[in-house]
Amino acid sequence: MSVPAHERMFGGQWIGATQGYAMPAHVWQITQQGARLTIATRWEDSTEVTLLYARLSPDSVGFTLNGGSFHAVALGPQHFVVPGWDTNDARGGVGPHYDVIFARPGIAELAAPARYRRYLSTAGGA
Prior knowledge:
An 8-stranded antiparallel barrel has the order 1-2-3-4-5-6-7-8. 11% of the residues lie in helices and 42% in strands. Strand 2 and strand 3 (36-43) form a beta hairpin. The protein is mostly beta strands and 126 residues long.
């Protein structure tokens, strides 16, 4: 029996870049078991790892975090975006929340800013 591509596309390492505000990179290692995802996350300048749990969205290619508070949107096999993921928690509660685009390490990281702009220009973006 074949597993649908979206049920295995998120596993592995991802590097996230906050859009619109200078922050360290979000480093995520995702383990995927069916519809469940376990995310070991840390800032690029830290060794402290936090575990997050997510679930694939049944109605689209993406996943929900924090019990549905955040929804990651797949932009293909090399990128996904989490709107509003970079909250102002790290900035003392000051300022807005920022989108974070995640990419596979390497060449996909270089293409992430352009891929994010393309996302914003679609109906699903802004």
